[in-house]
């Protein structure tokens, strides 16, 4: 099992939900963690809640390569390295194709797909140095299409394919690349407020534990794509 103490991670969209759960698990495993949000206040509040001196809250928009590059500069300036990148930031607009707007389409693709492209472009040189790990948070919607999901399905189908191609590109440098594809997760996604009825769902801390397990796996072995489902979803 690898010792993760002192490693440095970036979690995009780390101020709440899945990103927060992963950041919390990484901190407990001894990593230093930068979390990004489009709001500095939100990033600061999450860092305060995490309660660790090893958190760096940053304002960054994954839809801007320049913004991503600035975040990486701040991380390197503070800690001198980058070992793990969790490309988690995402959003969803769900509507029939007749009702889906061009703005909603662009927001979804720009965040969920192009945003991950910008994230790897901003971090790849640092990951080459550290022989690091790049993990994308996709979705079961990356293989299962559904009505009113055209934008979201397109972004997540694209993200799964993108991540697998990047895995083939980067493993020659000793960089591991994995996509995690969760089903229903208790989070604030799509303006949801977590509540007691979410007990059957995957919890953010479960994905945090899974992420740590991936990081601790021997270098010779790479789970490149992981589908994750609730064990006992409600009967329809």
Total E-strand runs: 7
Radius of gyration over all CA atoms, rounded: 17 Å
Q: CATH superfamily assignment?
A: NAD(P)-binding Rossmann-like Domain
Structure class: alpha/beta
Q: Biggest β-sheet: count, sense, barrel?
A: 7 strands, parallel
State the end-to-end CA separation. 41 Å
- What is the overall shape? globular
Give the strand order, joined by hyphens, for the main sheet.
Answer: 3-2-1-4-5-6-7
CATH topology: Rossmann fold
Helix content: 40-55%
Which strand-content bin applies to the residues?
A: 5-15%
**Helical stretch tally:** 6
Assign the CATH class. Answer: Alpha Beta
Unreliable stretches (pLDDT < 50, length at least 5) are: none
The total number of structural domains is 1
Question: What is the N-to-C succession of helices and strands?
Answer: EHEHEHEHEHEHE
Explain this structure to me?
This protein is of the alpha/beta class and 236 residues long. The protein has one domain (8-228): Rossmann fold (3-Layer(aba) Sandwich). Helices cover 43% and strands 15% of the residues. It has 6 helices and 7 strands. The protein has helices at residues 17-28, 40-50, 65-79, 102-130, 150-170, 204-216, and strands at 8-11, 32-37, 55-59, 84-87, 133-137, 176-182, 225-228. Strands 3-2-1-4-5-6-7 form a 7-stranded parallel sheet, sandwiched between helices. Helix 1 packs across helix 6 and helix 3 packs parallel to helix 4.
Quick rundown:
The chain is α/β, with parallel strands linked by helices and 236 residues long. Helix content is 43%, strand content 15%. It has one domain: NAD(P)-binding Rossmann-like Domain (Rossmann fold, 3-Layer(aba) Sandwich).
């Amino acid at each position: 099992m690898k010792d993760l103490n002192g490693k440095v991670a970036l979690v995009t969209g780390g101020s709440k939900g899945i990103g927060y759960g992963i950041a919390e698990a990484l901190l407990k495993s001894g990593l230093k963690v930068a979390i990004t949000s489009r709001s500095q206040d939100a990033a600061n509040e999450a860092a305060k809640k995490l309660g660790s001196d090893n958190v760096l809250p940053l304002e960054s928009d994954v839809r801007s390569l320049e913004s991503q590059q600035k975040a990486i500069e701040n991380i390197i300036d503070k800690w001198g390295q980058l070992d793990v990148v969790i490309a988690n930031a995402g959003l969803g607009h769900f509507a029939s194709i007749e009702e889906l707007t061009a703005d909603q389409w662009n927001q979804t693709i720009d965040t969920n797909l192009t945003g991950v492209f910008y994230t790897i472009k901003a971090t790849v040189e640092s990951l080459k140095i550290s022989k690091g790990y790049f993990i994308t948070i996709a979705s079961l919607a990356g293989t299962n299409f559904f009505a009113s999901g055209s934008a979201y399905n397109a972004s997540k189908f694209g993200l799964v394919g993108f991540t697998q191609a990047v895995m083939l590109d980067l493993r020659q440098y000793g960089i591991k690349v994995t996509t995690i594809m969760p089903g229903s997760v208790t989070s604030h996604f799509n303006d949801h407020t977590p509540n007691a009825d979410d007990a059957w769902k995957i919890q953010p801390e479960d994905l945090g534990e899974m992420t740590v397990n991936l990081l601790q796996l021997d270098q010779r072995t790479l789970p490149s794509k992981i589908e994750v489902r609730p064990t006992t979803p409600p009967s329809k």
